[in-house]
Batch of 2 targets.
Target 1
Amino acid sequence: MIKLRLIIEEDRELLFGWRNLPEIIENSLSQKGVSWEEHDHWFSKCLSEMFFSCLPFIIVYKRKLIGHIRFEKRNDALCEVHIYLLGKYRDRKLGSEALEQGIEEVKKVWPGIVRIKACVQEDSYEGANFFMEHNFLAENAEYEKCWVFFRLLNR
Ligand SMILES: CC(C)(COP(=O)(O)OP(=O)(O)OC[C@H]1O[C@@H](n2cnc3c(N)ncnc32)[C@H](O)[C@@H]1OP(=O)(O)O)[C@@H](O)C(=O)NCCC(=O)NCCS
């Protein structure tokens, strides 16, 4: 059983290290690592906007920190999800648990949200399968350089 905990200041370096791991870069939309300056700015923004427009969590499994899931509010009705697990924890349904728990948090914190968007890097069949398995529907979005999925929230 996984748990989600909100990020804290002490996670700044942890998330920088994770974001630059080859196994995370490989599935990222940019396909590139990030500099400390970029990360530092992004992380501070994440902390300062927490609950207003960002819900960022560390995924915890048996007291180990195994990945990150984050919801970013795009407008009053729509938010976007980003999720990754460290390689050795994948394919064990832990991502599924994290996604569903995260969505429950979104419903509590942002009751107005009715749609969740996910963008998946074009080569990532695992990512695409993952979201489709969780009732996300693919949308033909030619203007985006990624696969786009949406899930409607039933309350
Ligand atoms: C996407 C990710 C979070 C899924 O978490 P996970 O714990 O590995 O996935 P689960 O074990 O919960 O699998 C759920 C479903 O996802 C799909 N899936 C997961 N891993 C897959 C793989 N290697 N190949 C194909 N489909 C896969 C399957 O449909 C699977 O259902 P099934 O086991 O009944 O076939 C994880 O693989 C990951 O961190 N990937 C890299 C980052 C990424 O691509 N993030 C998505 C874009 S934001």
Note: The domain at 2-152 is CATH 3.40.630.30 (Aminopeptidase).
Target 2
Amino acid sequence: MLYTPKYIYNNDLDQKICKCPECKKYRILYCHSSISECKEETSKSIESDIFAVCSKCGRMYRFSITQMNNQDKFHVVRVNLIEEKYSDVKENIIRNYNSYESILSIKSEDFLTKLIKDIEEDNYKLLEYVFMEK
Ligand SMILES: [Zn+2]
């Protein structure tokens, strides 16, 4: 089961992305996630590259989040405000999404999801997937 949340909340992040006063969450337009696990050291890391919209003011952002070993908050890195039009951003997202070869494609109510890597070796597991809002 791949984790494809519709929203990401400021409460789950170590810093607020949008500075508008009432911002609480962001609607995810596109997300590219890698989850790697090393069983021997029981370490797990998650890294996601996200395009999202502030659900209050509508500003769009691209940012990355990382999490190590189930820390309670995601660490936010590389925040960029997107100033292009929504239609251009959407086009860009679709191009990105289509550029990946999928092992498995999943269509849910809100998202199209592609599993792009699923590697399991003795001690190591890597899962990589992209999803975009329909
Ligand atoms: Zn905002």
Note: Residues 18, 20, 23, 54, 56-57, 59 surround zinc ion (CB under 6 Å).
